[in-house]
Each structure stands twice: as structure tokens, then as C-alpha cells.
Amino acid sequence: MSERPMNGKVVVVTGGNSGIGLETARVLSALDARVILACRNAEKASVAQADIEASTGHRPEVLALDLASLDAVRASAAGLVERCSHIDVLINNAGTFATSRAETADGFERTLGTNHLGPLLFTALLLPLLRKADQARIIHVSSEAALHSQPDLSDLQMTRSYGRFGFDAYARSKAAQAMASRALASRLEGSAVTVNAVHPGHVATNIWPRHALVWRAVAAMQSWFALTPAQAAPRVVFLATTELDGVSGEFFKDDAPMPLPHELTDENAVQAVWARSLGLVGLDETHFT
Ligand SMILES: NC(=O)c1ccc[n+]([C@@H]2O[C@H](COP(=O)([O-])OP(=O)(O)OC[C@H]3O[C@@H](n4cnc5c(N)ncnc54)[C@H](OP(=O)(O)O)[C@@H]3O)[C@@H](O)[C@H]2O)c1
């Protein structure tokens, strides 16, 4: 497969201050892309900015983005519209994992709000800029955890049961995102914008909550088997830099699309999750026509 040149390409990386996002931003900066780190913590973003500049000689830009607030997402997208004439690659990398239930500013279950609903609104608001690129890519940094779950539309916000250890909420949020990604791909058919999800592997990062014994143990064991963020980043970079002939709506693992379970591809279920998600972020189908 051939590589497309990245020099001058505008790439937005959410959560680009840490873990997989930081290393992805580093590789793309080294390839001379114009990288924008969209981060919720200005101090961490500025450390990442200096770190990437020191290692690549390219200084990425920083944009404030809190995915746990729809108002903040709108403000951030508006900031990009002011700054950029187009976007070539949007990497929805930021994500969270939480052992106990909490809510976002908009009253969404925090994991769903941060991992799926915030990124959905951000993506939708950036579509006009993505449509202005010659060939734009939307990349969701997903997780294999999605394959073991599906959103429960009768209790999407998990008010009845949050499950144990936070895994259910995380898996459901990634499943919802994978399903919405398929729905979005069908709406973008015939355009120059593709959307795909990618499992980056099991990676030793800050995402595992250190205050819970079970996840501290997982984090400790990770030193034996997990990838480093620098080893995982190429799997995300692959989707940004490789000529993929309009491949869209796929879920990648190890640089190739993989089949998803029926629960995540069933057309009725996909459309139901899409419709509910759009309603929650205040959008309708007209936004995608
Ligand atoms: N690690 C793995 O094994 C693994 C496996 C599969 C998929 N993934 C996915 O990979 C992605 C990156 O995670 P990581 O493992 O690299 O963990 P990480 O180092 O903790 O990075 C997560 C990033 O998301 C940001 N973030 C969290 N909540 C946010 C919010 N409300 N608004 C904006 N940004 C927010 C974090 O910002 P702060 O630094 O301010 O917290 C951080 O920059 C996630 O989507 C994760 O689900 C990870």
C-alpha cells in the first residue's frame, strides 16, 4: 500500500497531550503535518507541545477541548473554523475510563459523553471543514472492548446499573461509537470524507484508573504484555497516511479491517443508536446532507 504525503496536511488530534494521542501527534508532526492538539488541560497541552517540538523540530498548535461539555465542544469547533480553511484528518483519540458513574455537564453518563457523544458533535461540527479537503479522514481510536458489548437503548445513561469496575460503561461507549461510525460512513458515501475506527492494541497509558485496585493490577501487569504508546501510534498513523481507496465504515485491527459482531452491524440497531445519539447532541439528519 502506498503512503500519501502528509506535509502541510491539517491534522487535529483530540487528547494529543498523552499516551497514544501524544505519540500519534509526534509521528505526524515529524511527517511535517500541521498538527493541532485538542486538549482539555492547557498545562498538559503546553508540555506536550514543547515535547513534540523538541523531538521533531515542529511545534504543534494547541486548541482547548473538553468533550464532557457540549458547549465546550461547540466553542472548540468554532475556534477551528476560525483557524483553518479545511481539515485533512480528524483523529478522535481522547477517551476516558471511569470506575464509578458520574455525569457530564449535559447530564450524560460520563464515559458515553466523553467517548462517544462529545466526539460525535465535534465531528459533525467539523464536517464542513473536512468536506473542504481533497480527501479527508475521520479516525476514531476505538477499542476491542466494543466487540464485547452494545449500547442498551433502554438505559443508555446507565442509571439502573453501571456494572462493576467501569468496564461495561467503557465497552458500551466504544460500541456506540463504532455503530455511529458505520452510520456516518453511509451518510458520507460519495463524498471525499471517510470514517474508520481502529483498535490500537493494549497499551500502557494513563487511561487505567489508578485508585481502583483491579485496574492498578492491570496497569502493573501491562508492563509484561502491553505496547508502549509509541508502539501503538503507528496503527493510528496508518489510517491517516496510507492510501486506502475510499475505505470507510470499517473497524481496523493490525492495519486491516476486521469483521464486527452482528450486534454492532445490524442495520436497525445501528440506525437506532445513530438517531438517539444525534438527538442527544441536538442534531438531526439535515446536518449530514
Ligand atoms: N490504552 C489502551 O490499552 C487502549 C486500548 C484501546 C483503546 N484505547 C483508546 O485510546 C485512546 C487514547 O487513550 P490512551 O490509552 O492513550 O490514554 P491516555 O493517555 O489517558 O489519553 C487519553 C486522552 O484523552 C483525554 N481526555 C480525557 N477526557 C477528556 C475530555 N473530557 N475532553 C478532552 N480530552 C479528554 C486525556 O486528557 P488528560 O490528559 O487531560 O486526562 C488524554 O489526553 C482512548 O480513546 C482509549 O479509549 C486505549
Treating each run of at least 4 consecutive H or I residues as one helix, how many helices?
Answer: 9
Q: What is the global morphology?
A: globular
Indicate how many domains the architecture comprises: 1
Task: Report the CATH topology name.
Answer: Rossmann fold
Question: Based on helices, strands and strand pairing, what is the structural class?
Answer: alpha/beta
Compute the number of strand runs: 8
**Which range does the strand content fall in?**
5-15%
Task: For the record, give the distance between the C-alpha atoms at the N and C termini, rounded to a whole number.
Answer: 32 Å
Strand order of the largest sheet: 3-2-1-4-5-6-7-8
Stretches with pLDDT under 50, minimum 5 residues: none
Task: Give the name of the CATH architecture.
Answer: 3-Layer(aba) Sandwich
Radius of gyration: 18 Å
Q: What would the average pLDDT be, to the nearest integer? A: 96
Determine and state the CATH class: Alpha Beta
Bound molecules: NADP nicotinamide-adenine-dinucleotide phosphate
H and E string: EHEHEHEHEHEHHEEHH
| Biggest sheet record | 8 strands, mixed
Tell me about this structure.
This protein is an alpha/beta fold. The chain has nine helices and eight strands. It has one domain: NAD(P)-binding Rossmann-like Domain (Rossmann fold). It has an eight-stranded mixed sheet, with helices on both faces. The longest helix is centred in the middle third of the chain and has 22 residues, at 110-131. The radius of gyration is 18 Å and the shape is globular. NADP nicotinamide-adenine-dinucleotide phosphate binds next to helix 1.
